[in-house]
Amino acid sequence: MPKIKTSKEEVLQKVIPILKMRGVQSSSMSELSKACGIQKSHFYYYFSNKEELIKEVLVTVHSYFNYNFFKIIKNDTLEIQKKITQTKGLMDKIFKVSDGGCIMANTALETIHLNPIYKKEIRLFFQDFISGLQYLLEINHEPHEALMIAEQIVQDIEGGILLMQVYEDPKYLNNAIIRMEKLILNN
Predict the structure, then answer these.
(1) Residue 186 three-state SS
(2) Looking at residues 140-149, what average pLDDT do you find?
(3) Between residues 71 and 26, the one the model is more confident about
(4) Cα(137)–Cα(120) distance, rounded to whole angstroms?
(5) Helices 143-167 and 103-111 sit at what angle, rounded to 10 degrees?
(6) Measuring CA to CA, which residue among 74, 73, 105, 106 is closest to residue 89?
(7) Between the CA of residue 184 and those of 15, 83, 105, 145, what are the distances in Å?
(8) Which of 10, 60, 124, 125 is 20 to 30 A removed from 108 (C-alpha atoms)?
(9) d(Cα 50, Cα 56) in Å, to the nearest integer?
(10) How far is residue 106's CA from residue 122's CA, in Å, rounded to a whole number?
(11) Per-residue CA distances from 94 to 1, 12, 20, 98, 185 (Å)
């Protein structure tokens, strides 16, 4: 018998890894509610439909990333090398620890050409990722150049995540992160 009492946050934490691995199209509401240990009808208590659930997942992931990323890079007590080290740890946790890579990129690749309903949330995530890196790069670069390099780093990291998934080898993401570090430290 599935348990009935669970919070919206618990539900989100349980569905994120499934959506990350299986994707939006391949994950049914029945499968997701079962993974949460709740009845499908109880699942609809929190989310009126799948689109609402996916948007909430993307907002949750974005919020988690932003909180942790900006807590690191805006910390004036940390030296730049320590900020990079902690940022690398955050990227490992978000992109490597569990299978599936980057849920934002996965969702974009899977849905944007069919139904751009999640485009706003995905765009905001990448804008914040780029602006955070730009902030770090402006230590050694002019703002416009820092923006271009930040965009390049995000493209490189997302490509590294993709190749890590395709080849089942973390070296691709590790190499992108090493290149990020060199660009930020300007060496």
Answers:
(1) coil
(2) 96
(3) 71
(4) 25
(5) 80
(6) 73
(7) 34, 10, 23, 12
(8) 10
(9) 10
(10) 10
(11) 32, 15, 11, 8, 23
Tokens linked to 5: 């009492």
DSSP assignment string, 15-70: HHHHHHHH-STT--HHHHHHHHTS-HHHHHHH-SSHHHHHHHHHHHHHHHHHHHHH
Query: Three-state SS for 142?
Result: coil
Using the structure block, give the residue that is written with the tokens 């939006």.
24
Give this prediction's pTM. Answer: 0.90
Residue with tokens 């080290």: 85
In this prediction, residue 2 carries a pLDDT of 45
- pLDDT at position 42 is 80
Angle, vertex CA 9, rays to CA 158 and CA 4, nearest 5: 130
25-34 burial code (b ≥16 CB/10 A, e <16)? eebeeeebbe
